[in-house]
Amino acid sequence: MAQKFGNSRWVQEGFLDNRVPGTVVGRIVFAAVGPVEFCLRGDFRGEIAGQAIRFRNSRYEDDDLAGQAIGDLENPQVGTVNLIAFDPHPNLAPHPYIEWFSLRKNHYRIELAPGDAWIASADEVSLIEGDCRRIRAALADRLHDQPGRRDESDWV
């Protein structure tokens, strides 16, 4: 089952950048945990594909229970995008949706209210550009360090 961060109320704000194809980097601030950096293999979908996005959760709660439930959240988060979109399903009202799997195969999902996320403006992109480059440089190699992956055989 996916960790939903207290129905997403423990997600304060953040940014994610998909301007480099095949990679999503960014930072999300969680209740009790603080900022967590992200480097995920994959792409956004729909109108946000290839863009940088920002978000601020209108339903955010800094709750003591958050520390017990998500205090052991992997930091940084390195893994694979499952779905990141502003319109995730044709039978649901459009809303920001962020879903990924960590390298440890933990499943995470954030659903925000419509209007809580937006495509970053040029000014906002310039504010996060240095962080995005630094995160990508520091973590991109870890995308290839998947547990249980065997590129070479033990057979001689």
Largest sheet: 8 strands, mixed
What's the total count of β strands?
8
Tally the helices.
2
Q: Could you list the spans in which at least 5 consecutive residues all have pLDDT below 50?
A: 148-156
Number of domains: 1
Separation, N- and C-terminal Cα atoms = 40 Å
- Report Rg: 16 Å
- The strands making up the biggest β-sheet line up spatially as 7-6-5-3-2-1-4-8
Strand fraction equals 25-35%
Helix content: 10-25%
Order of helices and strands: EEEEHEEEEH
Explain this structure.
With 156 residues, this protein is an alpha+beta fold. It has one domain. Helix content is 16%, strand content 33%. The protein has helices at residues 64-70, 122-139, and strands spanning 11-17, 23-30, 34-41, 52-56, 77-85, 97-102, 107-111, 117-119. An eight-stranded mixed β-sheet has the order 7-6-5-3-2-1-4-8, with helices on one face. The model is unreliable at 148-156 (pLDDT under 50).
Q: Which labels suit this protein?
A:
single chain; 156 residues; 8 strands; globular; disordered C terminus
Compose a concise summary of this entry.
The chain is α+β, with helices and mostly antiparallel strands.
Strands, helices and their partners?
Elements: E1 11-17, E2 23-30, E3 34-41, E4 52-56, H1 64-70, E5 77-85, E6 97-102, E7 107-111, E8 117-119, H2 122-139
Parallel strand pairs: 3-5
Antiparallel strand pairs: 1-2, 1-4, 2-3, 4-8, 5-6, 6-7
